[in-house]
Description:
By secondary structure, the protein is α+β, with helices and mostly antiparallel strands. The chain is built from 2 helices and 5 strands; from the N terminus they run E-H-H-E-E-E-E.
Amino acid sequence: MDIVFSDHAEFQLKKRRISKELVKKAVLNPQSIEPSFRGRNLLRSMIGDKLLEVVIKTEGSVVIVITGYYLN
């Protein structure tokens, strides 16, 4: 599985000070997955005491990270 980051994700993750490595861990081993609109999925994973949510879209064997943010 290849994980690629959209330009939007690159910008937002940098702005929010969330490392790509944390996002990759959440994508590879999410604690929950919920369907979203336009064929996207919301992946959630606890990182320390924070809940990281990553929005992805899958195209074949490629996972495209749309954005990521902490919920709390």
